[in-house]
Amino acid sequence: MAKRYIVFLLAVLILVSGFAVWMAAQDTDVDNGNSVIRVTVAMVQLNVAVTDSKGNYVTGMRPSDFVISEDGIGQTVATFEEGNEGPRNVIDNTPAANGSKTPMPVPDTAPLSPTQRPNDSTLGGARSGTLEGIASVSSGANVFVLFDTSNYMFRNRGFVFAQDSIAEFVRSLDNPYRVAFYSYSRDFFRASPLTPDRTQVLRGVRATVNGDDSALYNALLLTLKDAGQISGRKVVVVFSNGPDNSSMVAPEDVDELAQSEGVPIYMISTREAKLDPASAAVFARMTASTGGEAYFAKTWKDQRDAFASIREDLAHLYFLSYYPQPNPNRGWRAITVKLKDPKLKKYRIRTRSGYRPIPAHVAVEEAGPAG
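The chain above was modelled as a monomer; its predicted structure follows.
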């Protein structure tokens, strides 16, 4: 017990210290007498789903179709990718690259076309680096699967069926994807690290055993911290069978971290929403704010359909990124994504609602003589 408290105390201290560093770093060009503090802000990444009124995916969108703003400040798309097709229309918007402070224009591509979305049920930014480096890792998502092995799952006699559903989901993901498999009850276990090797992940799925109480939000926090260490697209898929009854962190804190790291959360709950309305409300709110979705799958078939829907979602998401324009706001920044053409405004946009900036790099430079 003491060990768990120490772990989460350290996690909180890391987050607080990181925010303090960012606060100092935002005081750009402030002369302390001998030095100037400058900050390089990370690229902000967005996973964006576009669907019509029937839930069909809208494909073939162009970078110029999207209008992105942050706290009402317009942003320029720097990288663009659709589904699993790999990055395209990747440009370098950094002033040093194009010789000016004006971002280079993004060329248009193909026309729109709808794609059916089957089995429908009731995204900080990249780490610093060149756009070429970011593009090389952005094709295919990094999927973190989090499995509830608490006693709730065994009471429901659905443990083996849940393992089967997860295993089928892992096998069905396209080759560019890397998968990590974690399990949790009161304790948290990294059964398989992030890897393209499906066999290793499946061994981790089959090796899961019964636990005790459920500490979902503790496990989510640790999973998000792992996801935050890598670049490119990343999502968390949670398979849960009951309410959280032993976490030491609040779901609101987990939600904010997920948005700040740009990680959509997908939740599959084996309990009907009406049986646990409090957890259902948290699941719905957390998934919506991060750009994911919540599913309440009572039967084994519903669980398989929910995983299939998530797989289709990952295959049809747009992956956009931008370098934030100067913004004096040191706290929470609201992100808005719209479609430019009025004819396209009938479509639904799903993405994260904002983030709290996490600096990619802070540098201290010697100040020049006062002019």
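Residues 5-10, 12-32, 92-138 have pLDDT under 50 and may be disordered.
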